[in-house]
Amino acid sequence: MVSNPLPALARRIAQKRWVMRTAPIVLWLERFVRWVSRGRHGVLDLAGLPSIEITVAGRKTGIPRTTSLLYVPRGNDFLLVGSNWGSPKHPMWSANLRAASTATARLKGEAFEVSVTEVTGVDRKRAWDLAVEFWPGYEMEYELSGSRTFRIFELRRS
Hints:
This protein is of the alpha+beta class. Helices cover 35% and strands 27% of the residues.
């Protein structure tokens, strides 16, 4: 059986600084692919990478907000890293997750509830090391962000 070469290629390309400038295109493509597939797939899925769609109430408005993200598998749990494409600002979704204890996740068309925990302290270092091993581009994004400490969240099926 031939393995999919796209994940390895994506990991190599994601370590190039110029890729961060493609964010608007990738985000548009993500929304389009999600729409066409009725939420079952995203751009990352097509590239053979793990993608999860998260819906969480806005911390100020309470209005549900949905975003698609790369996740780092950790056993049966999901790690999310708030890299925001190397921006000096935290992503909006991370502020909403920080204020929430639960969210709805959608993975390959299946929706389920998750508990949300921000990973801190010694556990954060372990989670960061795992995330960088899984997605080496996070180190470059960290440098581009001005060394902003990325928020890391663990999602666990409820």
